[in-house]
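Good morning,

Attaching, inline, the backbone tokens for the sequence recovery test we're adding to the shared suite. The designed sequence is right after.
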């Protein structure tokens, strides 16, 4: 079996989940997020682009309903024993098969939580599910129950996050070796992703971001490549990924002679991330982190150029995003606790002058100050 964790680890996770379900008075939970299924059972697939769900009862009983293409995937990569198949056919409605399974599991009239806020749940599936279950029992939104449990990483998970961080560092080394006037973005991107694969890592849950010149001001991947000019700027956001655990990094590299604005924006990024390191610890909240970011940026007249979030929790994630639900934004009361893997990013995009500057890395929280997982310093990079 292709398990990345031992069975006692999965048993602890199931116990944590069922304890929380009993606190929430849930008789069962329908998991649609692939990362929830992976965390709980090891089940590893991209088959969540089709209908599938993992039923978890409060007594710890589990059953997966999926397509035939994922039967062997579930048996090989997970601890699951009860795998039910819904059949592809014209006008198929797998929620009927799910309802029948819930009847077999003695859940008629039960209070059932559903993970609605996930990429594994389309609007059409949600409507079909609600149509089948509205009169079946009491249905409640439990989208964040498992994701909150996943915030705290076990020692085994921390080891994977650390490995992912080492691969992210390898990717930056590969990029720096190629970044110079005339270099092709395609070669840089290939080297970065190749470094992760060569180190035994995985595809990331979303594309690496690369952009130069005007495209350096973009915060998302887009198609198209160019060669670097003698004086240029290159923004990179990437993540090492190992056993689906991610450690993200972000940098803007200046090629040739940096201008005054590059230096000014870098100083704001560096000062802000240093300040955040003093609040990224137990006793503070995710909202406190954002407030620190906003205060320093706004005091420097950068309110129009900063973003409305400055990072998020990372862990085992699947496409289309390596971001977890919990983000550093205004008013987020989520407490910071030890053993969280958190990506902090400073992103300043000055469209008035066409200047980009970013700085970001992943931290592991402790009982006190956080530990940066990168071996690279947060220096201004000029090649």
């Amino acid at each position: 079996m292709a398990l990345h964790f031992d069975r006692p680890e999965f048993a602890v996770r199931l116990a944590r989940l069922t304890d929380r379900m009993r606190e929430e008075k849930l008789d069962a939970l329908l998991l649609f997020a692939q990362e929830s299924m992976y965390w709980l059972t090891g089940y590893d697939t991209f088959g969540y682009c089709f209908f599938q769900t993992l039923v978890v009862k409060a007594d710890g009983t589990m059953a997966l309903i999926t397509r035939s293409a994922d039967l062997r995937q579930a048996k090989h990569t997970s601890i699951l024993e009860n795998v039910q198949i819904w059949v592809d056919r014209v006008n198929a409605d797998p929620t009927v098969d799910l309802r029948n399974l819930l009847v077999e599991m003695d859940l008629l009239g039960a209070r059932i939580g559903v993970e609605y806020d996930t990429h594994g749940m389309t609007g059409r599936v949600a409507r079909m599910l609600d149509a089948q279950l509205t009169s079946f029992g009491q249905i409640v939104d439990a989208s964040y129950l498992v994701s909150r449990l996943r915030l705290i990483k076990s020692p085994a998970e921390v080891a994977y996050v650390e490995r992912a961080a080492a691969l992210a560092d390898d990717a930056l080394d590969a990029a720096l070796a190629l970044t110079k006037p005339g270099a092709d973005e395609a070669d840089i991107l290939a080297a970065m992703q190749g470094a992760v694969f060569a180190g035994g890592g995985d595809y990331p849950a979303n594309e690496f971001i690369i952009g130069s010149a005007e495209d350096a001001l973009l915060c998302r991947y887009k198609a198209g490549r160019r060669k670097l000019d003698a004086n240029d700027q290159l923004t990179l956001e990437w993540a090492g990924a190992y056993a689906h655990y991610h450690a993200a990094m972000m940098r803007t590299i200046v090629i040739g002679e940096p201008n005054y604005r590059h230096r000014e924006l870098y100083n704001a990024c560096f000062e802000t991330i240093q300040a955040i390191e003093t609040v990224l610890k137990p006793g503070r909240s995710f909202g406190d982190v954002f407030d620190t970011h906003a205060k320093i940026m706004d005091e420097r007249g950068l309110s129009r150029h900063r973003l409305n979030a400055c990072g998020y929790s990372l862990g085992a994630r699947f496409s289309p995003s390596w971001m977890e639900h919990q983000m550093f934004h205004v008013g987020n009361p989520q407490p910071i606790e030890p053993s969280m893997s958190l990506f902090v990013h400073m992103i300043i995009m000055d469209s008035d002058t066409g200047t980009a500057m970013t700085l970001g890395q992943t931290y592991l929280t402790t009982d006190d100050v956080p530990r940066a997982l990168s071996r690279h310093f947060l220096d201004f990079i000029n090649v």
